[in-house]
């Protein structure tokens, strides 16, 4: 089993963090201990640090880190020891597996109570993370573990694409060209759309979307001339106006999938437009197991390559500097990783 010391970032309360050195965790029954290779910092982590996350979805003190990859270092009681040395990612939701929603495969809707790695359970801003072995997804032996740290947001987008049901030859728009939006472009490009338009005010992000497979890049102002054009609109920005504007972009009878995390006070969707246009609107929070499987498969096949999204890497000791970059507004800041 494991031995020695292990470091972890602990946020005791909003705005206060420390680097803790302690004994290497031991995996419990049904768990594995993973040596973390890379962990991504996302806006949810920034919200935890700033104290802006809904109190029902975080438990202080907490070691954050829900986007990560690593290598299994030890297997707990009841776990196949052959898993040791495997490269892995793991689902964040600690779904119960037995409630009606889980039994229907909708693990992101588990009714057994909310528990998630990095929010209520110790996460991967650490040398090691312990997770239930049943949540693991296995990577190829030659997998790029830095890129694999982005498979959590990729799974969210895989869930959004599943909900949107893209068909060849459709007109598709992606609203937002952040991490989620650019991953969406890669997955949606594989569905052979007639048009794949990305809408973002940042020209640098628009240019990157074109490299990722988009056919057109528009600013939000330019996109107003495209109202009613798209069969499918995948919203990824979570900006105050983008839920409402995404519905305006869809054609009558079209489909809209909302994946951005909206804050209270965001512009509401016009119910008159919604009913007259007969839109199908879905929202996404997290990812069920099936979406994780699809993202991992797409990554293994090369259909999904998150590596170009990574712009910064920091050691654990520089967590404060790293988290300050996230949400800082610099268009040159893409995905920020911690490398324990």
* SS content category: alpha/beta
- What's the CATH H-level superfamily name of the largest domain? Medium-chain alcohol dehydrogenases, catalytic domain
> Alpha-carbon distance between the termini?
20 Å
Q: Output the CATH class name of the largest domain.
A: Alpha Beta
In the CATH hierarchy, the third-tier topology of the largest domain is known as Quinone Oxidoreductase, Chain A, domain 1
Sheet with most strands: 7 strands, mixed
Q: Which range best describes the helical content: under 10%, 10-25%, 25-40%, 40-55%, 55-70% or over 70%?
A: 25-40%
Count the DSSP helices. Answer: 11
Number of strands: 15
Count up the domains: 2
The percent range for strand residues is 25-35%
General description of the model:
Strands 3, 4, 5, 6, 7, 14 and 15 form a 7-stranded mixed beta sheet that branches. A 6-stranded parallel beta sheet has the order 10-9-8-11-12-13. It folds into 2 domains: 179 residues, Quinone Oxidoreductase, Chain A, domain 1 (Alpha-Beta Complex); 125 residues, NAD(P)-binding Rossmann-like Domain (Rossmann fold). Helices cover 26% and strands 26% of the residues. It is globular, with a radius of gyration of 20 Å. Helix 4 packs across helix 5. The model has no long low-confidence stretch (mean pLDDT 96). It contains 11 helices and 15 strands. The protein has 340 residues and is α/β, with parallel strands linked by helices.
């Amino acid at each position: 089993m494991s031995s020695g010391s292990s470091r972890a970032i602990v946020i005791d309360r909003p705005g206060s963090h420390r680097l803790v050195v302690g004994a290497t965790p031991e995996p419990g029954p049904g768990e594995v201990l993973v040596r973390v290779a890379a962990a991504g910092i996302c806006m949810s982590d920034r919200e935890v640090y700033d104290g802006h996350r809904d109190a029902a979805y975080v438990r202080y003190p907490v070691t954050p880190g829900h986007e990560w990859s690593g290598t299994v270092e030890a297997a707990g009681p009841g776990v196949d020891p052959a898993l040791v040395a495997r490269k892995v990612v793991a689902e964040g939701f600690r779904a119960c597996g037995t409630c009606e929603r889980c039994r229907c495969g909708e693990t992101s809707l588990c009714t057994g109570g909310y528990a998630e790695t990095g929010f209520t359970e110790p996460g991967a801003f650490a040398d090691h993370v312990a997770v239930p072995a049943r949540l693991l997804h296995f990577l190829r032996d030659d997998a790029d573990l830095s890129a694999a740290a982005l498979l959590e947001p990729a799974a969210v987008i895989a869930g959004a694409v599943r909900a949107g049901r893209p068909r060849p030859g459709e007109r598709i728009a992606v609203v937002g060209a952040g991490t989620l939006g650019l991953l969406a472009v890669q997955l949606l490009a594989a569905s052979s759309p007639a048009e794949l338009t990305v809408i973002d005010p940042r020209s640098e992000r628009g240019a990157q979307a074109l490299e990722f497979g988009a056919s057109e890049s528009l600013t939000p102002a330019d996109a107003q001339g495209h109202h009613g054009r798209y069969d499918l609109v995948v919203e990824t920005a979570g900006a105050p106006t983008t839920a409402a504007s995404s519905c305006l972009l869809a054609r009558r009878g079209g489909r809209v999938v909302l994946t951005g995390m909206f804050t209270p006070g965001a512009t509401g969707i016009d119910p008159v437009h919604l009913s007259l246009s007969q839109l199908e609107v879905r929202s996404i929070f997290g990812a069920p197991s099936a979406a994780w499987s699809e993202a991992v498969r797409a990554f293994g096949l090369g259909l999904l390559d998150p590596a170009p999204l990574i712009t910064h890497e920091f050691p654990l000791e520089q967590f404060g500097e790293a988290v300050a970059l996230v949400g800082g507004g610099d268009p040159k800041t893409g995905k920020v990783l911690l490398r324990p």
